[in-house]
Amino acid sequence: MSTREAYKQKIEAEVELAQAKLSELRAKAKISVADARIKYARQIDDLEQGVEATKAKLKELGEAKEDAWEHLKEEVESAWGALRDGVRDVGAKLKK
Fold it and tell me: pTM above 0.85?
């Protein structure tokens, strides 16, 4: 075998290894994207539950008697604050 042929075979083998590595990286990227989708879907589901919880607190506030609404106001503010912060966090992560 000539030196030229040996060199050609060596580079061909290295190219095959690079193709295999690219296939592996492509598969890892697919897994990573799927994991991210699952993670964000869970976070969005949690935030939707936060929306419902905040709406429920607002309904309670609207139905509360005059002497009880101050106590409920704190609960509404707490629920709203958690929801607002969660939406900001997920939004910031999705922008990256």
Answer: no
